[in-house]
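Objective 1b. Sequence-to-structure analysis of AB hydrolase-1 domain-containing protein.
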Amino acid sequence: MKNHPSHEISFRCVAIDQRGYNLSDKPKPVESYAITELTGDVRDVIETLGYKKAIIVAHDWGGIVAWQFAESYPEMVEKLICCNIPRPGAFGRRVRSSWSQFRKSWYMFFYQNARIPELLGSADDMKMLEGCFRSKEMGIRNRSNFTDDDLEAWKYAFSMNGASFKYPINYYRNIFSGTTQAKDIILEMPTLIIWGTADGALDIEAAEESLKTLRNGSMKRIQEASHWVQQDEPEKVNQFITEFLNNN
C-alpha cells in the first residue's frame, strides 16, 4: 500500500511479471506471446483481484501492452501512465516515415531470426543484457541507480526456473502478426506520458504524435534522462505520477 500523505490518498499497487519473465509462466508457442494474450493477462489479474478497473502504470513492453489494453478494454482503465513508450500506432507511423526511428529499431527486425538472438542474449555472461542498461547510446545515465548487484539480479531473473531470452524475444516475434494491429481510436481516459528526452531507442516525435489521439492526455519531459527514465530520475517520475493521480 503506497500512501500519499499530502492528500491522504492510498493505492494498492500490484507489480506484474509478465508471461515469459522471472517466475511467471513461460508457454512455449510463439503465438502465446501475442498482444491479445498479454492484454488478456492484465484483464485476468484485475478481475482476479476483485476489481472492475485499475490505474495502469507501465514502461517499454509493459507500455505497449498498457496502450493496447486501453484500446481493447477502455472500461477497465481509470487512468493510464506510460513511461518512454509511444502509442503503437504512432510508433508504427514514425518507423515508416523516419530514418532516425527506423535505424533505432534495427533490433526488432533482428529478433525475427530463429535461435540466433537467444544465443547472443545468453553469451558472454549475458553481455547483451548488460549493454541494454550500460551502453553509451542506450544505457542508464544515473549509474548510481543501477549497480552491479542490480545487474546480477536481472541476470538471475533470466537464468532461473527455466527462464530464457527466448520468451521475451517472442514478444517481438508477434509484432508483425495480425494480432498486433493498433487501433487508431481516441482514448478517453486521463493519460500521462512521461518521457526521458535522451532515449536511445525511441524518438520523442512518436510520443508527441500519441498525444493527438488522447482526449485527456498530457506529457512530462525529463531532460537528459534515458529510455530507463524511472531509473535515471525516480524522484521526478514519482512526483509526476503522484500529481497526476491526485488530480481529479
